[in-house]
Amino acid sequence: MSSSQLDARSLQLRRTIIEMYATANRGHIGSAFSLVEILRVLYDDILRYDPANPKWPDRDRFILSKGHGCLALYAVLADKGFFPKTELRLFCRKGGILGGHPEYGRIPGVEASTGSLGHGLPIGIGFAIHAQRARAAHRVFVVVSDGEANEGSTWEALLAARKHRLSNLTVLVDYDKMQSYGATTEVLDLEPFSDKWRAFGFAVEEVDGHDVPALREVLSRVPLQPDKPSAIVCHTIKGRGVSFVEHNPHWHHKGPPTEAELRGLFAELGA
Amino acid sequence: MRKMCLEQIYQLARADERIVFIGSDLGVGTLDRMKTEMPDRFFMEGVSEANIIGMAAGLALEGHIVYVNTIATFVTRRCFEQIVLDLCLHHVNVRLIGNGGGLVYAPLGPTHEAIDDLAIFRAIPRMTIIAPADAEEMRRAMPLTVDYPGPIYIRVAKGGDPVVSNSKLPFAIGKAIPMRDGSDALIVTTGITLKIGLDAAAALESDGLAVGVVHVPTVKPLDAATILDAAARAAVVVTVEEHSIIGGLGSAIAEVLAEAGFDRAKRFKRIGIPDVFPDEYGSQESLLERYGITAAHVAATMRNLWGSSVPRVQVHLEGA
Questions:
Q1: B105 and B208 assigned to the same domain
Q2: Judgement on whether residues B79 and B10 belong to the same structural domain of the protein
Q3: CB-based contact (8 Å) between A132 and chain B?
């Protein structure tokens, strides 16, 4: 895939991410770029929420369990009006609300503090059990990373989701096949990944995680099966959108960019 | 004490629909009445402590008051990061019931002996730590846990501990309880060591020593004012805990005493488990004995400290 396939909105969100990165001189770029289409589809088409009333009881609950992908989340939340766009310029800075990982209580629209992997899904289980027992209509969506599936707590949560038949829970896996050190096949192989989710009692579909209509279509059908939690394994590309960032573990978390890198980033993102 | 704690959860849950119970994989029959009468609020979730704590946080963020019950070592050690981040960082109303605080599980060995739970949880911001002395104090403490803000760890000792707490004295989370007056020396206790402290103080009375006892059922936040007030006139202060001497009650008291700026330093001793894994089986009593967590050892320690605390006039004999 090349960046030419990204539409104007996807490019704009990535430019916002790079502006934040350039301001703070740090950020998980590869981990945010893999997520952009997943998040924009969720917030444009799927989730029910009210930016003016982030605690609206009937809202769908969303947790970015891979909290290090927060640059993408911040770009989307600001775009939707959860907080002023001026906050984006304070990313990781004193006086700002947007840290290197998202924090509950600081950022309107953030339901749980994440950043250490393996926490978001168990918290989401609690949300989903509450909604189920309260017979509430709202749903729970959690985005996990593939590296996060190294954590035992993630698999404990899957057991619980199956036990409680949490059909109101949808887990999206950002499966870019790369973790911090390198390829998941090298660090800790997850395959057969979708089969594992199925074996744990989830209804599973796989989708191109950068294909907006395909994401929209599959997400509009959740729960994929009645009485089962849903897992959508999103095949993504780490760093998607910029040639020298794609598949490049050096951009998992990146320090200050060079002038040339910055020019290259904006050039490829259509600025 | 454990039975009282669970009974209280059932009674409190009957009166308050926000209350939810989560067990890991507890003994058969645990809270059967709650399971039968309130099935939507009773959960037995398996040996998966990390998920249980996250799930508890999620339920609490939705407005529930969640009581999580398992063995103390498993809820302190296994899922420490979940406690720190999911519970304390989010400041949610989850109550952790730690069964077998201290040396209760002596026959089962070091995997089950919670000798570091107070130290582990004292280090976490926003955590409250309660260690009642007996079933009666547990009865008074539990209703207060319902609306107390933020996470609470409730240390549960063995059942059948003799009742030594005083129901006439007010109980409040965050307050130490002066149990006995005495201005020569002070014993500070938590949990079941209250009885040891009271027995030691009574024994010392026959030696002519006036020994006060302050019971600290809330180890965090520490009621420094009450402790310092009781310690002000005492020459000797001894802490007694069924816990490592590192990081628990003794450490907490040492910190406030050291920073209090008394004109004359106290003779001070922490009595507890030394920096070791217990190396014997047997019973709670036999391990308490092994580590000197007994009234006799407390009394002997205080006699020694008292003896060395009395200023001695040095006599220099001419021409000697």
A1: no
A2: yes
A3: no
Q: Which of B176, B175, B255, B269 is nearest to B215 (CA)?
A: B176
Answer yes or no: do B140 and B184 share one domain.
no
Nearest CA in chain B to A134: B40
Please name the residue ranges forming H helices in chain B: 2-15, 32-37, 49-61, 72-73, 80-82, 117-122, 135-145, 193-205, 224-231, 249-260, 284-290, 295-309
* CATH code for the domain of B57: 3.40.50.970
pTM: 0.95
Q: Which helix (H) or strand (E) holds B43?
A: strand B42-44
Report yes or no on B168 lying in a domain: no
Query: Do residue B54 and residue A159 have CB atoms under 8 angstroms apart?
Result: no
Among candidates A105, A127, A157 on the partner chain, residue whose Cβ is nearest the Cβ of B51? A157
| ipTM confidence | 0.96
Token code pair at residue B11: 């009674």
In a shared domain, residues B33 and B120 = yes
Residue B277 located in a structural domain: yes
B59 shares contact with chain A (CB less than 8 Å): yes
Helix ranges (H only) for A56-181 are 70-80, 120-133, 152-163
Strands B185-189 and B177-183 come out as unpaired
The shortest C-alpha distance from A243 to chain B (Å) reads: 36
Question: Is residue B165 included in any domain, yes or no?
Answer: no
Domain of residue B134: give its range.
2-156
Same domain for B227 and B146, yes or no, is no
Instruction: Yes or no: say if A93 and A24 are a contact pair by the CB < 8 Å rule.
Output: yes
Q: Is the CB of residue A122 less than 8 Å away from at least one CB of chain B?
A: yes
Contacts of A156 in chain B (CB under 8 A): 46, 48, 50-51
Which architecture characterizes domain A3-268 according to CATH? 3-Layer(aba) Sandwich (3.40)
Q: Where are the domains of chain A?
A: 3-268
Looking at the partner chain, which of B54, B85, B91 has a beta carbon nearest the beta carbon of A125?
Answer: B54
Test A113 with B62 for CB contact under 8 angstroms: no
- Among the three residues B90, B121, B156, which one is the final residue of a domain in this structure? B156
The Cα of B17 is separated from the nearest Cα of chain A by a number of Å equal to 11
Distance CA A263, CA A243 (A): 13
Q: Is residue B40 less than 8 Å (CB to CB) from chain A?
A: yes
* Residue contact B57–A123, C-beta within 8 A: yes
- Tens of pLDDT, residue by residue over B18-75, are 999 999 998 899 999 999 999 999 999 999 999 999 999 999 999 999 999 999 999 9
Q: Cα torsion at A144, A146, A152, A155 (round to 10°)?
A: 60
Same domain, yes or no: B12 and B67: yes
B21 lies in the same domain as B93: yes
B223 in any annotated domain: yes
User: Do the beta carbons of residue A17 and residue A29 sit within 8 Å?
Assistant: yes
What average pLDDT score do residues B114-138 get? 97
DSSP label of B293? -
Q: What are A35-82's pLDDT values in tens digits?
A: 999 999 999 999 999 999 999 999 999 999 999 999 999 999 999 999
Task: Supply the DSSP symbol for A204.
Answer: E
**Minimal Cα–Cα distance from B243 to chain A, Å?**
29
